[in-house]
């Protein structure tokens, strides 16, 4: 089942699902633990297809995410561009790591992303998030192996090259 140019539909569909999971209503006590779905999906595609998904795509995805979240325009775009830049630069090293080590690397990147988001929130005077917002990197680290396996299977089935 191959739709679109080179399976682009699979990339777009995975980001749509990540957006939906990111805005899914959760109880207040769970919110700090919500995985960073969009950075996780972005990191996967930057690892798998660094020539197709990179900083420009991350910036566009980030702007869309800013609109969806209703946040400061460019905030998520900046954070996701940082993640994409680091993953694209080091994709050859990260690819050969065992899955658990990859999870630690991706979790560190999500921590950097979350720290950037927290810094921007503090600079613009938002009291929406506290430092428990950084806990998202823990759940993202734990979920990375499953995200990787699911997206790898999607990429293979869709014939994304």
How would you briefly describe this protein structure?
The chain has 7 helices and no strands. It is mainly alpha-helical. It starts with 7 loop residues before the first helix and ends with a helix.
Percent in helix: 55-70%
Low-confidence stretches: none
Q: For the record, give the distance between the C-alpha atoms at the N and C termini, rounded to a whole number.
A: 14 Å
Q: Average pLDDT value? A: 91
Oligomer: single chain
Number of strands: 0
Q: Radius of gyration over alpha carbons?
A: 15 Å
SS-based class? mainly alpha
Main sheet properties = none
Give me the strand/helix succession.
HHHHHHH
**Please, how many domains?**
1
Shape: globular
Strand content: under 5%
Number of helices: 7
List keywords for this structure.
single chain, 161 residues, mainly alpha
Compile the SSE list and pairings.
Layout: H1 8-23, H2 37-48, H3 55-69, H4 75-89, H5 91-96, H6 99-123, H7 136-158
Structure description:
With 161 residues, the protein is mainly α. α1 (8-23) runs antiparallel to α2 (37-48) and α4 packs antiparallel against α6. The chain starts with 7 loop residues before the first helix and ends with a helix. It has one domain (31-158). It has helices at residues 8-23, 37-48, 55-69, 75-89, 91-96, 99-123, 136-158. The chain has 7 helices and no strands. The mean pLDDT is 91.
């Amino acid at each position: 089942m191959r739709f679109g140019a080179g399976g682009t539909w699979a990339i777009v569909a995975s980001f749509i699902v990540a957006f939906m999971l990111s805005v899914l209503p959760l109880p207040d006590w769970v919110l700090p633990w919500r995985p960073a779905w969009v950075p996780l999906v972005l990191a996967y595609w930057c690892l798998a297809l660094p020539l197709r998904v990179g900083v420009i795509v991350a910036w566009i995805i980030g702007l869309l995410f800013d609109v969806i979240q209703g946040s400061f325009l460019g905030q998520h775009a900046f954070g996701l561009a940082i993640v994409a830049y680091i993953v694209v630069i080091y994709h050859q090293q990260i690819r050969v790591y065992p899955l658990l080590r990859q999870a630690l690397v991706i979790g560190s990147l999500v921590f950097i992303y979350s720290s950037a988001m927290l810094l921007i929130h503090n600079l613009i005077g938002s009291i929406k998030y506290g430092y428990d917002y950084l806990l998202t990197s823990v759940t993202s680290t734990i979920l990375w192996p499953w995200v990787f396996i699911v997206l790898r299977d999607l990429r293979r089935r869709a014939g994304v090259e």
